Automatic annotation (TrEMBL):
Record's protein name: Uncharacterized protein
Domain of life, source organism: Eukaryota
Biased composition (Basic residues): 159-169
Disordered as annotated region, ranges: 1-169
Amino acid sequence: GTTLVSSTLSHSSQTMMEKEKLEFPALEAKPKNKAEAEAKKSAHFKKKEHAEAKKRAEAAAKKALKCQKRMEAAKARSEAEAQKKAEAEARKVEEAKERAEAQKAHDEAGAQKRAEAEAEAKQKAEAKSKMLSQARRREKARAEAEAKKSAKATETKRREAKKKAASSK
């Protein structure tokens, strides 16, 4: 088992080396400058990686900025909507208050009118009853006077009849 593993390892490292030889012919050409070539290779990779990382970072920053702008726009929109909503709500409340006040004033005016009408009706009724009672009193007095007169006349007639009767005897 172990021989198989070691042979595959050596094989894979061999292919890696062959690839590197293809990419960097300088390595094969000058074995004495192997260290220099290694450094160059490393620097080349580092440069490449750095450039790619920079590109990635810039792309990410751009994306983040775009996202932030979108979020800010959405926030501004939602704030404007919330403001509108709040204003509409306040308007509704104000209108309701005004309606309630108008209704209250109307009701109060109605109550006052009713009270005035009731007082007037009461006054009229009192005046009418006073007039009626006065009329009744006058009528009673008249009737009494009439009765007295009638009684007097009857008395007078009776007296006269008595006199006549006495004189005719």
